[in-house]
Amino acid sequence: MMLPPELIRARRRRGVIRPVYALEAELSLAKTLVSVYSDHVGGRRGPLDDALSGCEELGYDYRLVRGLSWVLEGRCSFEAESPVDPRTARREVFREAGRRVVASEEERSRVLSAAAFRLGVSVDDLDRSLFSDLEDEHLLRSFDPLGPMDLIQEYNFSLTLGLLAHARRLEVTYRGSDEELERLASRLGRSSSGASGGLTKTVAEWRATSRIGYKSAQLEALLGRLLSLGFWSLSSDVVYPLKSRKAYRLELGSDLEGRLMRPPEVRPAALVERPKPVSDPPRPRGDVVVVADVARRMGITEDEVRKMYGGDFLDLGGVLLTEGKRDEILDALKGLEDMTFGGARRLLKELGVKDPVAVLEALGYFIEWERDRDESRVYRL
Fold first, then answer.
1. pLDDT band at 289, cuts 50/70/90?
2. 297-338 pLDDT tens trace
3. Contact predicate 234/253, CB 8 Å
4. CA 46: distance to chain centroid?
């Protein structure tokens, strides 16, 4: 549940970096955003995004509005309503439209009727399917709301995780001993632990990398475990932004920061609706799958998500793509003249990609973040 790097809010001064957490003053904003999502259940993503954009005009930092929305997005289930395969629908309609001049609503209706007849579907089903694979047309099927303060605390957790993903060294101190935390630290890289005076210090070191999402799952588990221990302190060397190549000291403790954040809640196993053991198990539609997002929404493990999609998808780390969609995205990016994040984001949105950062990283691209995120340059590694 790592906050995307372009949404991180932090202050750097004299070699120290401090996350800018959401506080009680932002409760009104959190409540508004929860209501916006609740009010749009059953509707298309386009109007939902417009409503969220309107919230950015309420006087808050746009990164805070988008960051809180990003947390809520993980509690949503979107689905494309496609009685007909969208590409097939468009091909038939464009083929029919090429035979005549379409200059009125009446002519459009005739084109749709002729194409629908050939496909053996109703005109309404064809019309709904034409662009249903575009992100703006996806329907918000369900939303699992949470309280405003819970939202703020989960946002703060995601913000902390986003900064730690830029770390190259992590040191945690806590009372007693905890084998699980030591195990999680060892999965991050080279680690060591030592006890003295009733306290244990565990240190993990790893090489800084542009693939900032690579260790997010281990970091999320470690930070969540640390929050459950009561008394603790954390210090880390964070290289943020990555292009600066300069490490800043991040220091957190249970007495202050620990009270401001909490890990995302996990639904009890009894309440999780798991895929039925049939030949074609139900799964979220689409040919681009961000594994962590689907696992969180469905309440299952990331391994179960990968098994659910079987051999139909290419596994590019945290992103699953069909071979056809991978080739389509790569070909489109090769032809993109405006190699900024804004240009790439708009292109990927047209191709139905919900999380452009994750997909770009999975395909081997690096984003050199600027103050204006849309002007950030995108490079192929």
1. confident
2. 555 667 777 777 777 788 876 788 888 888 888 888 888 888
3. yes
4. 18
